[in-house]
Amino acid sequence: MFKDHIVKPRATDNLTFMGTVAAVTFAVTLFAGLGESGLGRLMAPILLDLHAPLARDLAVAVTFTLTLVLNLFVLGRFPLRAQIITVWCELLLMFLLFFDTFDLSYAFIATKVGFMITQGVFTTVYVSAISIAIAFVLALLGATARLSSNGFAIAIASFYTSFFRGVPLLIQIYLIYLGIPQLGYVVGAVPAGILALSLCYGAYMTEIFRAGISSIPRGQWEASRAIGLSPLQTMLRVILPQSMRLIIPPTGNQFISMLKDSSLVSVIGVWELMFLARTQGRAEFRHLEMLITAAVLYWLLSIVLETVQARLEKHFNRAHR
Amino acid sequence: MNRSNVAHDLPQQAGVRVRKLNKWYGEFHVLKDIDLHIASGEIVVICGPSGSGKSTLIRCLNLLEDFQQGEVIIGETPLTRSAACVAGIRRQVGMVFQQFNLFPHLTVLDNLMLGPRLVSRLSDADARALAHEYLERVRIGNQADKYPGQLSGGQQQRVAIARALCMRPRIMLFDEPTSALDPEMVKEVLDVMGELAQDGITMLCVTHEMGFARRVADRIIFMDQGCIIEEAKPQDFFDNPRHERAREFLSQILSH
Predict the structure, then answer these.
(1) Measuring CA to CA, which of A27, A216, B167, B210 is 20 to 30 A from A95?
(2) Considering chain B, what percentage of its residues have pLDDT values greater than 90?
(3) ipTM confidence score
(4) In this structure, what are the phi and psi dihedrals at residue B177, rounded to the nearest 5 degrees?
């Protein structure tokens, strides 16, 4: 984004701004009546022995507002990087405190988390990784076909993207798992899941690749063809490496999204993370524990993918420093 | 291929013959009955007002633009639409573009080596040697490992010329090579082109640089509205243009 060079007084030093923030926070917390909430319990030492509901609500609202305003005031003085890190940590802490109010059994999580990783995360990762690889190839073929001047190729590719983008993934999974056996082949749940995910994401990524490829200026094709490179060589050596810069950010998005959509294949009984999250807690009625564990594991996986994506972006941007 | 004769001697030069070439963009008749004969080793400058079809004409010679009627012969080979023929012609015809069209994701050296490696099938070492020789020749040898985006416009265009030369073409086409450059960079590119002309390569150059045309060209072709209106030696063309439109054009371009 464009960074202007206008010098503005710090918003956190502005009395009107901070006053407004304080007033709004106070009003909202008071109105929410947090005296008996988890937040209220967290603040028990401050509440002393106030018992009147209104007094408790008021005390919580005041404490919360003061903490927030003071926090803003101090953080406003931090340099950018420190601000980012501190706010991240604060949000994370609030998140954890929020989950803590659920009264979770950590002992139960501890007994299950090992299996959820070795079986669930492992399955999720390999199903996604294989699907991603196939989707990438499908997208490359699809985009090339869409941009070709071959009627058959264009028709097949656009039919493909139209269908697989237009039908819910869940239905595709059922159609493949239940439909292919009608043809006489019995497919296992895992291959069926992988097939559905790759076909669906291949269709989305076809559009991403198509946009990336067509955004490369015509002059690049002309220069490459004029020195004698074949159309295929031009595509592989000149056009695709340049399109990668534009293809990778949205593709990274797709991959993260696929990682989570792979939870849909749990409906056909693949023992991936989501399937375990739903089944492992059932016996002891500890659904929330398992769902939260799965949520955290999905999140961690996504963070890994985000990091990989950032690396790749940097690699393909090296000529544009 | 041994290293000493890789770059120095140019391949045998070829001429160009164009007969009754006609091209339409939809209803619009861009090139009308173009007849053109360029001898081997000749330096020809094509000029004319914008929209006169001069770029389109030279882009027809290596089939970057298609045309509906007429025939183009490069050396002894008639240009057909078959993949093999077009590939053969493009190997013999080098082209330099107004917008340089360097490959931004490759270093200068890799830009030059791509064609020799993939098309001429040279070994890595031979392609590298060839690239270095031509980079020296356009006086940019010390920038081999930079990316095009890190070079000035004039340097980029010289790299583009070297990239075309690395394919050891028999004919060079220049499509307004200095039109996208800052004024102070025009000279370095024209100097390189002037040296190339002295080496005896066949050159077809669309340009508005009339000083260059006067100094270097063997012949000037003036086009207007899709027709070749005047063909003359530079001296005759500049001192005594025969056609009214050529006179107008020259007074426009030389008056500022």
Answers:
(1) A27
(2) 86
(3) 0.91
(4) -65, -20
Q: Which of B62, B103, B147 sits opposite A220 (nearest CB)?
A: B103
Position A321 scores a pLDDT of: 56
pLDDT category at B5 given cuts 50, 70, 90 is very low
Contact A203, A142 (CB under 8 A): yes
pLDDT tens-place string over residues A226-281: 999 999 999 999 999 999 889 988 988 888 898 888 888 888 888 888 888 888 88
Supply the DSSP symbol for A238.
I
Picking from A250, A276, A251, the residue whose alpha carbon sits closest to that of residue A124 is A276
Bridge-based pairing of strands B171-175 and B69-74 is unpaired
For residue A317, give how far its alpha carbon lies from the nearest alpha carbon of chain B (Å).
8
Give the span between the Cα atoms of B66 and B86, in whole angstroms. Answer: 12
Q: What is the pLDDT of residues B172-195, one digit of tens each?
A: 999 999 999 998 999 999 999 999
CB contact under 8 A, A223 and B115: no
- Burial class from Cβ neighbours inside 10 Å (0-12, 13-18, 19+) for residue A95 reads exposed
> Does the distance separating the beta carbons of A320 and B103 come in below 8 Å?
no
- What is the residue type of A49? D
**Given a cut of 70, is residue B9 above it in pLDDT?**
no
The residue length of chain A stands at 321
A229 and B105 within 8 Å at the Cβ level: the answer is no
**Where do runs of H (alpha helix) occur along B199-256?**
210-216, 234-239, 244-255
In chain A, the largest separation of any two C-alpha atoms, in whole Å, equals 86
What gap in Å lies between CA B71 and CA B244, rounded to an integer? Answer: 30
User: Which backbone phi and psi does A168 adopt, to 5 degrees?
Assistant: -60, 140
The two tokens of residue B226 are 């899709």
Let me know: does B226 contact B52? Beta carbons within 8 Å: yes
Interface of A with B (CB under 8 A): 217, 219-220, 222-230, 233, 237-238, 241-242, 316, 318-320
Token pair, residue B29, equals 């008749």
- Statement: residue A63 has pLDDT above 70: yes
Taking the CA atoms of A190, A191, A194 and A199 in sequence, report the sign of the dihedral they define: negative
Quick one: closest CA in B to A318, which residue?
Answer: B105
pLDDT in tens, B22-64: 999 999 999 999 999 999 999 999 999 988 999 999 999 999 9
